[in-house]
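Run: sequence + NDP -> complex structure.
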Amino acid sequence: MMATADAPKGCTVDLTGQVALVTGASRGIGKAIAIKLASCGATVVGVARSLDALSSTLEAIRATGGAAEGYACDVSNSADVKTLVDLVEAKFTKIHVLVNNAGVTKDGLMLRMEDDSWDNVINTNLKGTFLFCRAVGTVMMRGRYGRIINIASISGLVGNPGQANYSASKAGVIGFTRTIAKELGSRNITVNAVAPGFIITDMTDILPDKIKAEVKERIPARRLGNPEDIADLVAYLAGPGASYITGQAIAVDGGMTC
Ligand code: NDP
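>> structure
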């Protein structure tokens, strides 16, 4: 890793010379994370199901002089994840930062939930996180350095009616994060989870304004979150100042769960 003394302009975290792989980088929180990490000097490898969907993220990074590449991959497909990580390792040799952000919701009450809704959410949110951690973790072990940040949710901390599948997937991500932090800690690899509250993205945009107004009333900070609120913490956890933080699940929710 070629870290320099001066952090790039506009970012207090210096990731110069590092490679950061971000899943679900085509929009929302993942796009903000990709742009933030690139602004800190990292070369970003963005992943989504299609290359077209990634173009606006890649253009935004390149427009400010950053480096970014896009790869199409379904995070729930074991063989595709392995092939992708092999390609990235062959090209860059090392992967310093992994952000497992890709996620979906398929909300509905548990008693009426179809198997497909359960499988799709668990396979994308939980299995996808496992597949990338396993593949990239092997690369990080070889490099004797790594920062893994898994995007969970406060629904995995406190539960949320209508989201049994989603809550289970995110609670799973948190348990998984704590366990692999213990497995990888001695290899200079930290693993943390970030649990966003209510963040304004396509995922939450589908909710009626009435619900959004009600949620806002329950947030001590009295505002909904922005993707950048999450990206700032992810950049910190990826940077040198967070070397002694591992196995944690940190809520970024304006105080919703306090
Ligand atoms: P969006 O729906 O805006 O974006 C989801 C991202 O995940 C897209 O880039 C999408 O890419 C990607 N994705 C979905 N499925 C797959 C897949 N199978 N393979 C590869 N990529 C996939 O969601 P948000 O930005 O809101 O959410 C990002 C993360 O934050 C998720 O894990 C979510 O659970 C979590 N979160 C969000 C909250 C919120 O309030 N918004 C609150 C708590 C947690 P594409 O469709 O282009 O393939």
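>> summary
Residues 23-30, 48-50, 53, 74-76, 101-104, 124, 151, 153, 196, 198-199, 201-204 surround NDP (CB under 6 Å). Residues 25 and 31 are 4 Å apart (CA to CA).
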